[in-house]
Amino acid sequence: MLNHMVQRSQKSLDGVFRALSDSTRRAMLRRLSTRERTIGELAEPFRMSFAAASKHVRVLERAGLLRRRVEGRSHVCRIVPGPLAAANVWLAYYEKFWRGQLHALEAVLESEDEDRRRKGVR
Amino acid sequence: MSGKVTVRVTHRFAARPERVFDAWLDPKTAAKWLFATATGTITRCEIDPRVGGKFSIVRLEGIDIEHVGEYLEIDRPRRLVFTFGVPKFSPEMTRVIVEIVASGEGCELTLTNEGVPADYGERNREGWTMILGNLEKSIA
Question: For residues B102-113, b (16+ Cβ closer than 10 Å) or e, as one string?
């Protein structure tokens, strides 16, 4: 059950990173982080067509980063922060791995210094 | 297509750039820290430190875990680029860029790991879960 959840969340992480690999989509998410916006509003600062904007919205939606509802003739989008948090946790793991490696390197160099100092004293 | 991410970390060292750089390529020094964990033992550390040369670092952690890669750029003491992968857990190779800048008596090292796959499937999951678990233990 837990394994299944982990597997599912990792599959969706792939989609999250893919969605975030595009600067336009990242900018869209930033704008959505302050309030809900229609697809037209999202398209505005980029001077892109409605069709192009809704393509980006679809990618974000599939990654689970965005949800939309239809109000009359407009589609109102809002951000879903959960998957972003998952992506952060995953990246943090990797950062921690390399940070740990560099700390280990530092410790090795320091212990070499100490050995040298001790030998020098004798 | 699978999602790829880049991880970047920076660390300051009291040691001079040359020493920090050499610690990556000297097998005796590298065996003490590179891909080492508190719970595992490095049982093999082979390094062929030239462009096109390969490395193989094996850690015994219940099972043998081999870390492999090939050196793409060696510019002592400024820049080291190599591919890096753990075949047991993922067929994908990532790229590691180590950049060292002198700073005062010591130096600052920036490590960039590019092409880290975000889509670990069933096959890789257990391995990474284990590695990450060990990491947690050894780093925390």
Answer: eeeebbbbebbb
Q: What is the DSSP letter of B85?
A: B
| Domains annotated on chain A, with CATH | 2-121 (1.10.10.10)
pTM higher than the cut 0.80 = no
Domains of chain B, first to last: 4-139 (3.30.530.20)
pLDDT in tens, B65-121: 899 999 999 999 999 999 999 888 778 899 999 999 999 999 999 998 888 766 543
Mutation to test the B interface, candidates A13, A98, A110, most B Cβ within 10 Å: A98
B2, B8, B9, best to mutate vs chain A, most A CBs in 10 Å: B9
**Residue from the list A15, A97, A105 with its beta carbon closest to the beta carbon of B23:** A105
B81: nearest Cα among B118, B110, B58, B56: B110
Helix axis angle, B17-25 to A82-121, nearest 10°: 110
For B13-22, the pLDDT digits (tens) are: 999 999 999 9
Q: Which residue has the tokens 């790991």?
A: B113
ipTM metric = 0.73
